[in-house]
C-alpha cells in the first residue's frame, strides 16, 4: 500500500464531509458577524437596547461557531496532508504566501472577535469604538475568503497560469494568474451575498426558536423584532443571488465547461443515489423565495426598522422567474415547472405559517433558516461534485510539479540520489493530443472510446455547435483519426 | 454627566412592531412568572461617560484596533502588489 486510506468513509468522503461541515460553519460565522454589526448600529442609532442585546447574544453563538470552524479547518488541513499529500503539497507551494496571509487573518479575526465579545460591557462609554471593533470583523472575513476563493476558483478554472507561474517566474509561492483566475471574482460576489443571507436567516431562525419558548410579551417582542431585522437583511442579500448566479454560470460555461455541463444536465457526481442534488438545492431556493415573498407581503404593510422597497422585491422576483425560464430553455422545461411549483407551494406555506402563528414570524424564521442551511450544504456539494477532477483538469499538472529540488515521494525515507531522473516531456502534437485535450473539456475520453457509431463528421460538428472551438484543419484531423480507429 | 437613556413606554416604541399581539390571558399568566434576568436590561440603553470605562480595557482595545487596522492595510498592500507583480 503506498498511501493512507481513511477507514469506513474513504479518503474522498472524509475530505468531502469535513469540507462541507466547514462550509456550513465558516459561512455562518461570516454572515453572523455582518448581522451583529448591523444590529449594533441600529440599536445605537435608535438607542434601543433590544437590538444591541440581540447582537450580543448572536455574537456569543458566533464565538462558539468560529472556534468550531477554525479547529475544523485545521482538521481539513490534517486530512488533506495525510490523504492527498501530493495534491496538498503542490497547492500549498503554489499558493504559499496566500495561505500564510490566510493564517494571519485567522489570528486577527480570532483576537478581534474575542475582544469584541468579552469587552462588550466595558465600553459603554466608547460605544462607537466598540461597534467599529465589531465592524472590523466583516472586512477581515471578506479578505479571508477573498484569499481562499482565489485557490478554490483556481481548482475550478485554472486560469491563464495553469500552475506554472509560481514555479517558473517571479515569487515562489505566489501564482498571480492562477489566483486571479476567471471564476475568482464571481465566486467572491456569490459568497458575499450568500453568506450574508445564510448568516442572517440563521440569526432569524434562532429568534424563531426562542420565540417558541418565550412566554412573556416583552421577550416575545424582543425576538420578534430582532428576527424581523435579521430576516430583512437576509432577504435583501438573498434577492441578489440569481443575478450573481447568472453571471457565475456564464463564466463557468466558457471557462469550466465540464462543470457547467455537469450542473445543467445532472452528470457525474451531481446525481448520486438517483437524486440530482443541484436540482434539490434549487427546489429549496424556490421554496425559500415563495415563503419570503409571502412573509414580505405581510410585513411590508407595517413600518419596520429596515424595509426593502416593495418595487425592488417584486422586480427581482420577476427576475427570478426569468432566471427559471432561461434555465428551462437551457436544461429542460421540467426544471422551470418544478421551480414554479415549489415557489408557489412555498408562498402558500408561508402564508399558512403566518396565520397559524397569529402574525408571528417564528414559523417562517425557523423554516427559512433550515432551508438556508440546506441550500448552503447542497450548493457546497454541487460545486465540488461538478468540478472536473483536479488531476484530469490540468493536463500537464504532473509535469509542472516535479522540480528536482523537491522530494518526489512524500513521507518516504528515500535517498534523493535514488530518485528516478525526470526528463523533460516532449510537447505532444497531432490528432491524438487534439482529441485528448479538446474532448475532455466537456466529457471524458471514455465516452469517445465507447461511442458505438462511425458518424464522426456529424459528431464533431455537433460538438462545435455546443461551443468547441476548432479550425477546419483541426476538425479534419480529428475526424480522420477517429474514423481510422487509431489509438489516442 | 451620566447619560442613561430610558426607553419610552413600550407601547410607543413598538407601535409599529410586528409583535403587537395582545393576549389578555397571557398577561394574567405572566404576572405569576418571573422573566429572565436580562429582561430588565431592555429598558435602557446604558451609554455612560467616556471616563467611566475601565482604562485597561480601553487601552487594550485601542492597541488592538490600531494593530488590526495596520495589519489590514499591510495585507491590502500585499494584495495590490500581488495583482501587479508575480
A few lines on this structure:
The complex is a heterodimer of chains A (488) and B (86). Chain A is mostly helical. Chain A has helices at residues 11-46, 49-83, 85-94, 96-118, 127-135, 137-156, 165-168, 176-179, 184-213, 217-239, 241-255, 257-265, 277-299, 310-330, 333-356, 362-386, 390-393, 397-400, 431-439, 445-450, 456-465, 472-483, and strands spanning 271-272, 275-276.
Provide a descriptive summary of the structure in words.
The complex is a heterodimer of chains A (488) and B (86). Chain A is mostly helical. Chain A folds into three domains: 1-181; 200-394, no CATH class; 426-483, Cytochrome c-like domain (Cytochrome Bc1 Complex, Chain D, domain 2). Chain A is built from 22 helices and two strands. Chain A has helices at 11-46, 49-83, 85-94, 96-118, 127-135, 137-156, 165-168, 176-179, 184-213, 217-239, 241-255, 257-265, 277-299, 310-330, 333-356, 362-386, 390-393, 397-400, 431-439, 445-450, 456-465, 472-483, and strands at 271-272, 275-276. A two-stranded antiparallel sheet of chain A has the order 1-2. In chain A, strand 1 (271-272) and strand 2 form a beta hairpin. In chain A, helix 1 runs antiparallel to helix 2 (49-83) and helix 9 (184-213) packs antiparallel against helix 11. The longest helix of chain A is centred in the first third of the chain and has 36 residues, at 11-46. The two termini of chain A are 30 Å apart. The model of chain A is unreliable at 393-412 (pLDDT under 50). Chain B has one domain. Residues 1-22 of chain B have low confidence and may be disordered. Chain B is mainly alpha-helical and 86 residues long. Chain B has three helices and two strands; from the N terminus they run βααβα. The longest helix of chain B has 30 residues, at 55-84. A two-stranded antiparallel sheet of chain B has the order 1-2. At the A-B interface, helix 2, helix 4, helix 5, helix 6 and helix 8 of A face helix 2, strand 2 and helix 3 of B.
Amino acid at each position: 500500500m503506498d498511501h493512507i486510506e481513511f477507514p469506513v468513509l474513504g479518503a474522498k468522503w472524509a475530505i468531502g464531509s469535513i469540507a462541507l461541515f466547514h462550509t456550513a460553519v465558516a459561512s455562518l460565522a461570516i454572515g453572523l458577524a455582518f448581522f451583529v454589526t448591523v444590529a449594533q448600529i441600529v440599536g445605537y442609532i435608535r438607542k434601543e437596547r433590544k437590538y444591541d442585546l440581540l447582537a450580543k447574544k448572536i455574537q456569543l453563538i458566533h464565538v462558539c461557531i468560529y472556534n468550531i470552524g477554525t479547529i475544523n479547518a485545521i482538521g481539513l488541513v490534517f486530512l488533506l496532508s495525510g490523504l492527498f499529500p501530493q495534491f496538498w503539497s503542490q497547492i500549498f507551494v503554489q499558493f504559499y504566501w496566500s495561505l500564510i496571509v490566510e493564517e494571519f487573518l485567522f489570528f486577527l479575526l480570532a483576537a478581534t472577535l474575542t475582544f469584541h465579545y468579552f469587552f462588550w460591557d466595558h465600553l459603554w462609554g466608547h460605544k462607537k469604538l466598540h461597534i467599529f471593533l465589531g465592524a472590523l470583523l466583516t472586512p477581515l472575513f471578506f479578505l479571508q475568503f477573498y484569499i481562499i476563493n482565489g485557490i478554490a476558483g483556481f481548482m475550478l478554472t485554472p486560469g491563464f497560469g495553469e500552475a506554472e507561474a509560481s514555479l517558473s517566474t517571479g515569487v515562489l509561492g505566489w501564482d498571480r494568474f492562477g489566483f486571479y483566475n476567471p471564476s475568482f471574482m464571481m465566486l467572491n460576489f456569490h459568497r458575499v451575498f450568500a453568506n450574508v443571507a445564510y448568516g442572517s436567516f440563521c440569526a432569524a431562525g434562532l429568534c424563531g426558536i426562542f420565540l417558541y419558548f418565550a412566554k412573556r410579551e416583552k421577550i416575545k417582542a424582543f425576538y420578534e423584532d430582532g428576527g424581523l431585522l435579521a430576516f430583512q437583511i437576509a432577504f435583501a442579500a438573498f434577492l441578489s443571488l440569481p443575478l450573481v448566479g447568472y453571471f457565475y454560470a456564464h463564466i463557468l460555461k466558457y471557462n469550466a465547461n465540464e462543470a457547467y455541463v455537469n450542473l445543467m444536465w445532472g452528470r457525474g457526481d451531481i446525481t448520486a443515489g438517483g437524486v440530482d442534488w443541484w436540482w434539490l438545492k434549487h427546489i429549496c431556493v424556490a421554496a425559500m423565495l415563495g415563503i419570503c415573498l409571502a412573509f414580505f407581503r405581510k410585513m411590508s404593510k407595517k413600518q419596520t426598522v429596515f424595509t426593502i422597497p416593495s418595487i425592488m422585491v417584486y422586480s427581482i422576483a420577476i427576475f427570478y422567474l426569468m432566471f427559471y425560464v432561461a434555465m428551462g430553455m437551457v436544461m429542460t422545461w421540467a426544471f422551470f415547472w418544478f421551480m414554479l411549483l415549489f415557489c408557489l407551494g412555498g408562498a402558500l406555506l408561508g402564508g399558512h405559517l403566518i396565520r397559524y402563528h397569529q402574525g408571528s414570524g417564528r414559523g417562517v424564521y425557523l423554516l427559512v433558516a433550515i432551508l438556508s442551511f440546506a441550500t448552503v450544504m447542497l450548493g457546497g456539494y454541487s460545486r465540488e461534485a461538478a468540478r472536473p477532477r483536479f488531476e484530469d483538469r490540468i493536463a500537464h499538472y504532473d509535469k509542472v510539479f516535479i522540480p528536482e529540488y523537491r522530494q518526489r515521494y512524500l513521507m518516504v525515507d528515500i535517498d534523493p540520489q535514488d530518485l528516478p531522473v525526470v526528463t523533460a516531456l516532449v510537447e505532444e502534437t497531432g490528432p491524438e493530443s487534439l482529441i485528448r485535450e479538446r474532448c475532455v473539456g466537456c466529457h471524458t475520453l471514455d465516452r469517445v472510446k465507447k461511442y458505438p457509431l462511425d458518424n464522426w463528421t456529424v459528431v464533431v460538428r455537433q460538438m462545435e455547435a455546443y461551443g468547441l472551438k476548432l479550425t477546419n484543419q483541426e476538425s479534419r484531423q480529428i475526424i480522420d483519426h477517429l474514423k481510422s480507429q487509431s489509438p489516442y | 454627566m451620566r447619560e442613561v437613556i430610558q426607553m419610552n413606554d413600550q407601547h410607543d416604541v413598538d407601535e409599529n412592531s410586528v409583535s403587537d399581539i395582545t393576549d389578555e390571558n397571557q398577561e394574567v399568566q405572566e404576572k405569576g412568572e418571573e422573566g429572565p434576568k436580562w429582561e430588565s436590561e431592555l429598558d435602557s440603553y446604558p451609554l455612560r461617560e467616556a471616563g467611566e470605562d475601565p482604562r485597561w480595557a480601553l487601552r487594550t482595545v485601542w492597541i488592538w484596533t490600531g494593530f488590526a487596522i495596520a495589519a489590514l492595510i499591510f495585507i491590502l498592500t500585499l494584495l495590490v502588489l500581488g495583482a501587479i507583480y508575480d
